[in-house]
Amino acid sequence: MRPDAPVLGFDTSAAHCAAGLFWEGRTMPSRYAEMQRGQAEALMPMLEGLLTEAGLGWPDLGAIGVGIGPGNFTGIRISVSAARGLALGLGIPAIGVSSFELQAHGRGNGPMLITLPAPRGQAYAQRFEGGAPVAAPDLIEAGPDTPAPYGPGIGSLIAEIAGRRLAGATAPIPRPAPLYVRPADAAPMRDAAPVILP
Question: What CATH number is attached to the domain comprising 100?
Fold first, then answer.
């Protein structure tokens, strides 16, 4: 990636659709819309509009940053699939950024426990040290104050974290994958699965 190439970041891991740019060492325009559903339909037009506003086209991008959760299962799949498809089509890297990393950003390098709200009064938790995770995330009982790292600038922050990670990488960065800390809230099937005829 060229050092001055723009990085596009986006996220649909919660009740929102967010996008932003990180370019030449600074965050650029961003977009954010709260929505309970419809992220799949809203994401690509939002990205197109953001690039147009910044005077950029898809070929100008140097990398894609994408929120990988934890969060809404369907929302995470929407953005991760879009990021992987765009990266493949454009021939650029895609970098996954967790919600834990967003919450830890700018809070120093000392040991810390990052917590995020989870369903049923619980919280997702991950330990950080030196600005990086040192253990796998876990599900814990929530405390009284579990902040969420979401807001209007989330797309640009994802782009910034992804761009800085890519610039400092000494080995290939794995493709983004959804970060699921708990199993999906899906009821088991009551009936036998249908038989697929040859």
Answer: 3.30.420.40
